[in-house]
What we know:
Shape: globular
Largest sheet: 2 strands, antiparallel
Order of helices and strands: HHEEHEEHHH
Radius of gyration: 17 Å
Bound molecules: heme C, calcium ion
Strand content: 5-15%
Distance between the termini: 55 Å
Structural class: mainly alpha
Number of strands: 4
Helix content: 25-40%
Number of domains: 1
Number of helices: 6
Strand order of the largest sheet: 1-2
Amino acid sequence: MRWSAIGLTIFALCGMALAENPFVSLIPNAETVVANDPAVANACQVCHTSTSGGALNAFGTQVQAKMVGTTLSWREISQLDADQDGYTNGAELGDPSGTWTVGQQNPGLASAITHPAKANSKPSSIRDQVSPTTWAVIKDMFR
Length: 143
Ligand code: HEC
Ligand SMILES: [Ca+2]
């Protein structure tokens, strides 16, 4: 009984945390950017210049332009290059082809995820953008 009450409380708190970040779930790997970039304190900074919202960065501005109500065409956003570093937003966030949809697991290789609004944050090579499972699929094709 006690444990189920604790479980329910944790469940409710997790639900609240997710519910207050509606924008964060519109793109893949927002939390991965936070994990990979020491200068990024929370997921809001993937689109905003501050940790609490407000002004949008270059990526956030592209997101804003592609919002229709509360939904976003990730496929369209993925093909743009907000920071003009030569890597599309999709390539930086682990989904170059833009096939990810809201609610799916994060695509790509976590360690290769970079910030779509920072020109000095970009994948170091095309190899880094391909996940180990994709390499296995490619190898299989030549067996
Ligand atoms: C995927 C990009 C993205 C992320 C991540 C994001 N936002 Fe936003 N946010 C936007 C956009 C785009 C707008 C402007 C929406 C509009 O113009 O209707 C916005 C608007 C806002 C606003 C103004 C609200 C309003 O109705 O004018 C606040 C406050 C805000 N965001 C806070 C946050 C906070 C806090 C976080 C982190 C928990 C966050 N945002 C994460 C893209 C994002
Ligand atoms: Ca880029």
